[in-house]
Design brief:
single chain, mainly alpha, 0% strand
Length: 361
C-alpha cells in the first residue's frame, strides 16, 4: 500500500472530499430521519438496485435505507461514511436502523474502510483504525454478532496481507476484540503472533488477568508462567494476585505474590490483599500483614491504603493507630486525611478536626 501521508495536492483533494462527504452525510441523515419508524426489519438490508423515484413513490424504511447505502457506496471510503451515520443513528436511539446500516457496511468488506484521498490515503493502518472504532461501537451496543463479522474481516486481512505495515496494529485490534468477546484462547493466539517481545509479554499479562477475572485460575497462572521475561512475569502474577484478592481468594493471592520484587504492581497487590483481609473481618491479620511489608516506601503505601480500608469498615481506632505509625510523612498525612474525610462523611466533625490537625506534625 502507499504512504500514510498525503502530498499537498492530495491534501487539497482531501478538503474537497471532506466537504463532499459532509454533504452526503447530511443527505443520508435526512433520509433516515424522514423514513417511517414502523416495520424495520431486524435482518441486514440487502443492497439492491433501487432508485430515488421508487422510494418516493413507496417510501418504506427498507427502501430508503437501501437508497442511502447505495449513495454511500458510490463515495470514497463508504464504510467510514456509513460508520458516521450509524453513530448518529445510535445517538438518536434508533438501534435497529443503526444495526441495519452497520451490518451492511461490514458486508462491504475491508477495502470499504480505506481511502484513496487525503490523510491516510492508500494506508492499511487507516482502514484498521476505522475498523477498531467500529468494533468499539459494536461492543458499546452489545452487537456481538456484528463484532464477530468484523473480526473475520481482520483475520482475512492478516492472512491476505502478511507483509502489511498494519499487521501489528491489526493483531492488537484483534487481541482486544477477542478479550472483549471472552475468546481468551484466540486472544492468546493473536498475542503469540506479535513480533515485539515487550508488547507480547504485556499482552500475556492481559490474557492472564482476563482468565483470573473469569475464575479460570489454572489458565491464569499457566499464562503468567509462560512469560519469558522474569520482570514481566512477576508483574503479570502481581496483577493476577489483585484479582484473586478482590475475589476473596486471599491465600491464593498470597501464594502467587510470594518472592515478588518491590514495584508498583506488587505494592498494588499487597494493598488488595490487606483490604481483602479487612473486608473479610480479619482485622488483626490485615494489620499484621501490612506491618510485615519490607521496604520503607512499599510498607508506607500499603499502610496508607489499609488504614483507609479500616476506616471505611468503621474500625477508626485501628485505622488511626496504623496511620500514625507510618514513617513516611506524605503517606502518613494522606492516611490521616482519608480517615478524617470518612469521619466527616459520617458526621463525626469534631473527631475529624482532631485527626486532620495531626497532619501538621
Amino acid at each position: 500500500m502507499g504512504s500514510f501521508y498525503a502530498s499537498p495536492c492530495s491534501s487539497i483533494r482531501g478538503v474537497y472530499w471532506g466537504l463532499l462527504r459532509a454533504i452526503i452525510a447530511t443527505f443520508l441523515l435526512a433520509v433516515f430521519a424522514w423514513a417511517p419508524t414502523q416495520g424495520v426489519s431486524e435482518e441486514p438490508t440487502n443492497i439492491h438496485l433501487v432508485s430515488k423515484q421508487e422510494c418516493l413513490s413507496s417510501p418504506s424504511s427498507e427502501c430508503l435505507i437501501a437508497l442511502a447505502i447505495k449513495v454511500a457506496k458510490s463515495q470514497d471510503s463508504p464504510g467510514t461514511l456509513l460508520l458516521e451515520v450509524s453513530e448518529t443513528l445510535l445517538q438518536q436511539g434508533q438501534r435497529e436502523r443503526a444495526k441495519l446500516v452497520l451490518g451492511d457496511e461490514i458486508g462491504l468488506g475491508f477495502d470499504a474502510f480505506s481511502t484513496e484521498t487525503g490523510f491516510g490515503a492508500n494506508s492499511d493502518l487507516w482502514a484498521v483504525s476505522r475498523l477498531s472504532r467500529l468494533l468499539e461501537l459494536l461492543e458499546e451496543n452489545s452487537f456481538r454478532d456484528l463484532q464477530l463479522r468484523v473480526v473475520s474481516l481482520l483475520e482475512d486481512f492478516l492472512e491476505r496481507e502478511k507483509g502489511s505495515d498494519a499487521q501489528d496494529q491489526a493483531l492488537y485490534v484483534l487481541f482486544t476484540a477477542f478479550l472483549e468477546l471472552g475468546e481468551f484462547e484466540k486472544a492468546f493466539s493473536a498475542t503469540v503472533q506479535t513480533t515485539d517481545p515487550v508488547t507480547k509479554w504485556f499482552r500475556y499479562g492481559d490474557v492472564a488477568v482476563a482468565y483470573a477475572k473469569a475464575g479460570r485460575i489454572e489458565e491464569a497462572l499457566e499464562i503468567s508462567m509462560r512469560i519469558g521475561n522474569p520482570k514481566f512475569r512477576e508483574k503479570a502474577k502481581a496483577r493476577v494476585a489483585v484479582i484473586f484478592a478482590h475475589q476473596g481468594k486471599i491465600e491464593l493471592a498470597k501464594d502467587v505474590l510470594s518472592n515478588a520484587p518491590s514495584d508498583i504492581d506488587t505494592t498494588n497487590a499487597h494493598k488488595a490483599i490487606a483490604s481483602a483481609l479487612v473486608a473479610s473481618g480479619q482485622i488483626d491479620k490485615a494489620v499484621s500483614y501490612t506491618n510485615a511489608m519490607s521496604g520503607k516506601f512499599q510498607k508506607a503505601f500499603v499502610q496508607d491504603s489499609t488504614s483507609g480500608a479500616l476506616a471505611a469498615a468503621g474500625e477508626f481506632e485501628t485505622a488511626l493507630a496504623l496511620a500514625r505509625s507510618i514513617s513516611v510523612y506524605q503517606q502518613r498525612a494522606q492516611a490521616l486525611a482519608t480517615v478524617g474525610e470518612i469521619l466527616v462523611a459520617r458526621g463525626e466533625i469534631e473527631l475529624a478536626k482532631d485527626v486532620l490537625s495531626e497532619m501538621q506534625h
